[in-house]
Specification:
- The protein is mainly alpha-helical and about 100 residues long.
- The protein has a single domain, classed as ACP-like (Non-ribosomal Peptide Synthetase Peptidyl Carrier Protein, Chain A, Orthogonal Bundle).
- About 65% of the residues lie in helices and about 0% in strands.
- The radius of gyration is 14 Å and the shape is globular.
């Protein structure tokens, strides 16, 4: 039985990694950024994202993951790409 448990943990890790890559893809596309600049530790400020960029990223993330992202929660508090991906992962996990 422990073999099955390990497999599900690996699947969750893969899914989170896939989600992170999808979030980064959206940020790159909607923010018109170079992929190399969008690291997990990159801050919103360092990426020079404007308010309209954030709105476009938010809208694209909602469409990509078929979720509603409230602006008064962890997404608003996120200061870096890692915070954004964690907020999106929590919302996607909650939906599923």
């Amino acid at each position: 039985m422990s073999g099955g448990r390990e497999q599900s943990v690996e699947t969750k890790v893969f899914e989170h990694g896939d989600l992170v890559n999808q979030v980064i893809d959206v940020i790159v596309k909607e923010g018109s950024l170079d992929r190399e600049k969008v690291t997990l530790d990159a801050t919103i400020e360092s990426l020079d994202l404007k308010s309209i960029d954030i709105v476009m990223i938010l809208t694209a993330l909602e469409a990509t993951f078929d979720v509603y992202i409230p602006m008064d929660g962890p997404f608003l508090d996120a200061k870096d790409v890692r915070g954004l991906t964690d907020a999106i992962a929590a919302i996607v996990k909650e939906k599923s």
